[in-house]
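Ribonuclease HII, pasting as requested.
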Amino acid sequence: MLLANHSSLILECGTDEAGRGCLAGPVTAAAVILPKNFSNTILNDSKQLSEKKRMLLKPIIEEQALYFGVAHIFQEEIDEINILNASILAMHHSIDKLNKTPEFIIVDGNKFKPYKNIPHETIIKGDGKYLSIAAASVLAKTYRDLYMDKIHQEFPMYNWKQNKGYPTKEHRAAIKKYGITKYHRKSFRLLPDQFRLDL
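C-alpha cells follow.
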C-alpha cells in the first residue's frame, strides 16, 4: 500500500511511539515533519518492516525530514504516571524537540492530549496510512531498539538485544530466575499469576 501525505497545505508533524507493551525499558516517541514532496517506496508502519529495513530507513528519514525529534520516558516515570500517560508525554517531548512548531499534529492511535494550542487528529493505524506517522514509527522503534541493545550489555541474561523488553517466554523465564532489574517497569504484570514475584 502506498502511504500518503496527510496535508500539504500546512506544516504538519506525525507522531508515534514504541515500547508500550514492554516489561522493561522506556517508551519512546518520535515526531517528524516531512517535506511536501517526500516519497519512499519502502517506508511503512515499522511493525511491517524488518529490522534491517528500519535501520536502513533511519538515516534516510533523519536526512530528508525537515525536522524530527525523539524522546524516551523511562520506567520510573512510567510506574508513576502509567503507560498511557507516559506514551502521550513521550510524544509531547518529541514534538518539543522539533526546531519548528508544527501547525497541525497527526497521531497514531486514538489517545492524545492537546499539545499547546495546536490542533491534532488521532488516526487509528495511522502508521500504515500516512508517511509522517510511518516515519515517526520507524524512528521511535529504531531509537528504542538501540537503547535496549545498550542496556542488554549490562544484563545479558534477559536477552533484551533479541526481545527488546517485550514479554517473551524467555524474558519472563529470566525474570522468574533472576528477579527484576532497575530497568523493569514495576507497575506492570511482569509474570503471569502462577509466577508471582515478591516485589
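Note for the archive: The chain has a mean pLDDT of 93.
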